Amino acid sequence: MMKPVQVVKALSALAQPTRLAIYRLLVEGGPEGVAAGQVAEKLKVAPATLSFHFKTLSHAGLVESRQDGRFVFYAANFAVMNGMVDYLTENCCGGNADACTVTRKKC
Length: 107
What we know:
CATH class: Mainly Alpha
Helix content: 40-55%
Oligomer: single chain
Order of helices and strands: HHEHHEEH
Shape: elongated
Number of strands: 3
Structural class: alpha+beta
Distance between the termini: 16 Å
CATH topology: Arc Repressor Mutant, subunit A
CATH superfamily: Winged helix-like DNA-binding domain superfamily/Winged helix DNA-binding domain
CATH architecture: Orthogonal Bundle
Number of domains: 1
Strand content: 5-15%
């Protein structure tokens, strides 16, 4: 289970429109990730600006990167994402699972 300080850090990182768009794109891209250049092209974000946003998301534990030749691929850290959602819904509906309508597929 994530600690409150970790959840706040992750939510803070996502509380910016460009970073939220980046993260959603990475989630869509799955575990193999998306090349930084593809993210820049798809979201029309300058490379320097994109690097700043990736750094913020990475420090929050939300993304991981890997080098593949001259390309850098970024992927959502699904364990952190699921941990954050679990933390936020832990006591959903006062613990009455039958009354809770939160349904999602774990990644």
